[in-house]
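Hi V.,

You were right to ask for the full record rather than a summary. Here it is.
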Amino acid sequence: MRKLTTVALSTALAGGMVLTLSPTSSAATSIRSEALKIAAKQKGDRYKRGATGPNRFDCSGLVHFAYKKAGYRWKKRLSAQGQYNMSRKISASNRKVGDLVFIGTSKKGIYHVGIYAGWKNGKGWMWNANSASYRGYKVVKAPISEYTKGSPKAFYGRIG
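Predicted structure:
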């Protein structure tokens, strides 16, 4: 299993600056791409609150499962809000395939998460474990706009 690491170098520079080096861009991109493929392979698996796979998932459980199988080392199982809190926040214009899509009423009200699958037919899409009857309580690829009707908003994050 690949391991992403973050190396922090502290240097006694004027002002006490700390330089943090992140994993190589290609390693992080590879993990995001692999996590997306793994999530897609779960298509049709049933939704179950609290489940982390391999055949049943809730939304954060699917993200946890896919990224873990891709080589990302989680410290522990996190909720959608927990995954948002630990992710590096990115704008919609900077999102890349494999990034995380968070749905919530605010940055402190995140209640759903999926994996960004790209832009097609004028819509952004994500793989997620859907907990609603209109998608059949299962892992699906769905337009992000289905989750942002009304007051919810989409927020984006990157891990790895």
